[in-house]
Amino acid sequence: MVLSRSFLEDLSKEEFLEKVNGVCSLVDDINDEEGLLLSSLQKTMKLFGARRGSIFIYDEEKQSLGMKASFGIEMSDQDVLEKALGSGIVGKVAELKRPIIVGNISKDKRFKDFKARKSYKTPSFLCSPLIIKDELVGVICLADKESDDMFYDNELTLIDFLASQIALNYKRVNLYKKFDSMVDESNELKSRLGQIDTEKKTLKKQIRVQEKFASIGKLAGGIAHEFNNPLDGVLRYTNLCLENTKDDEVVRGYLLEIKHGLNRMVDIVRSLIACSRNELLGNEKIEFKSAVSNSIKNVRPEIFNKDIAIIEEIADDIPILPNFGLERVFDNLLRNAIYAVENKGQIKIRAAVTDGVLEIVVSDTGRGIPEKDIKSIFEPFFTTKDISKGCGLGLTIVDEVVKSYNGRINVESTISEGTVFTIEIPVEGNNG
Length: 432
Fold this sequence. Notes:
Blueprint: H1 13-24, H2 33-48, E1 50-59, E2 64-71, E3 82-84, H3 88-96, E4 100-102, E5 125-132, E6 135-145, H4 153-193, H5 196-243, H6 249-277, E7 285-286, H7 288-298, H8 300-306, E8 309-314, E9 321-322, H9 326-340, E10 346-354, E11 357-364, H10 371-374, H11 394-404, E12 408-414, E13 418-426
Parallel strand pairs: 8-10
Antiparallel strand pairs: 1-2, 1-6, 2-3, 4-5, 5-6, 7-9, 10-11, 11-13, 12-13
């Protein structure tokens, strides 16, 4: 028969709460699993006045419990350090997920086949599962009271409560350990691969960009389908007109301008398709100064209307380049600069080859780009212009063309002072 009184009733409320809190708050000071289990077991044994105790932790993969902490157990008893689920008292408590109290093991019918070890001083013990939300963590066992008395009912309730706290603490420490391990692995990866967070953001950004490129591809395909046949017809009749107006230089000049504009429309459609598919435009070659001159010619009316000064500082030794869309680069950079520059402003184009790298600098004295927008200006459809002045594809095309040359582009801007685009293209591999 199990009695209902224990030495715990002799403790004052303050003493009792202090001892219980001592077990519950161990996790605040101990951050390793073994130390936590040992300290938890030691304090619990002291609270219950037990000379013998052990904590087993459940291994789900093995379906067994391994002893991880013990006090008062003789070496001869430590040969059984692992208990199968459902085997023996520890295994049975783990399987049932309920605490048990035994007044006298030799008289308890539940364990009639259990043989008490000779090393036990008393036949009474407590055993409780360590559980979190029905998840088995392990089992704690207490035996051999210092008073040689048995364990009581009110102690069963207490060990059940403490077992749940020990389980929570163990899980917290386990999570801390995993977190620290992840941090260590993360730091190790960062040292080898760079900043992981930055790479994740870059990857997400690339995914968004590719999604937008897919949209561009659909748009470009539609434009190509709808425009190519009419453009082909208009170009054909324009060429026929040119052949029949050889004597009228004025009309012939107009027709040549029309033809140049039509060719640019065809080129723009090809650029959009190439941009969306990440394709190169072909095997044609282009002379650098011609690309700059043609682009300036294309925007001359806008330059004239704003009375903008165009300054060219272009070296003579720039090699012939593959035509991956270089003229499109200058078209878009110039149009953006013109949009940003107020009347009587200035746009400068500088280019030179240094140490095998072609450096192109396009600067303006315009209104500048807000810092928060600089990181987004190359994204498809990003624009700060009115919808009637642009759709946000210009700098996307610039960026893709520069990448086609295996180059890179950098932007520096100051509000009310202007913007500088710097493009670096390796000459090797791009020399026509």
